User: Fold these one by one.
Assistant:
Number 1:
Amino acid sequence: MDSVRREVEGLIDKQTFVITDLPKGARSIPTRIVFKLKVDGEGNVIKYKSRVVVKGYYQRIGVDFDDSFAPVAHATAIRAALAIETAKNWDITQIDVTQAFLNSEMDKDVYVDPPDGLPEEWAPKGKVWQLLKYLYGQKDAP
């Protein structure tokens, strides 16, 4: 599927992981691919999207991660920013950054099993991905 190829190639381009053997005593966390349809206002399919997601519910606090972090913009802060922008007659622009989440580098060794169904070149049998940057679904992702 083209969307899966784009997702994994994006991970490779951003140097999100390296393919390696699982070190003795280490454990790997399973992953999966989440699919989504992007549709227009009339319900017509615009784009097929895929994302590799870590099954974070397999992570154990104190073992796989120490802290969790969930940045959230409060509605009042967004309304205040929009009010200031409107009052000052500033232009408001929305952008979509592909795989923006993947820019945070990791400070510990985390190993994940590649999702099922990937070609051998991306998921060699018996190998794992050592993450160099965070993936969606990790409990300790910024």
Number 2:
Amino acid sequence: PEAPPEEEFGFEAREFVRKQVIGKQVKLVNARHVDQLKRDMGQVFYKDDAGNVKNLGEELVKEGLAEVSDHAVNKDRTGEDEYVRALAAAQVHAMETRSGQFSGLPCREKPNFRPEEYMLEEIAKELKG
């Protein structure tokens, strides 16, 4: 089967995640099954090179490499969900600084998804140093 086309800024998002968390311990919190496929969803936390705890989803949104779904914002009509508020603020930041998909620039042209075997080999090499 043919790989689906890559999302716009998908390559940049994947590289951002790789650079932030490969070789680091991460913590998944509020994990839960969210759909009929029973995928685990939650917040991923890691420490940056300066030792600051970062929320990976929030950082992706702040860089303009992901966006907050209207569904999430509409579902939190009370404004009480701290995580949704943080994501919304991160998206405003990305829009104001014209980051990533809000830059008006085209994303990099990269090939579709790499084969999983290649990705696993590359990750293993990076972990070994």
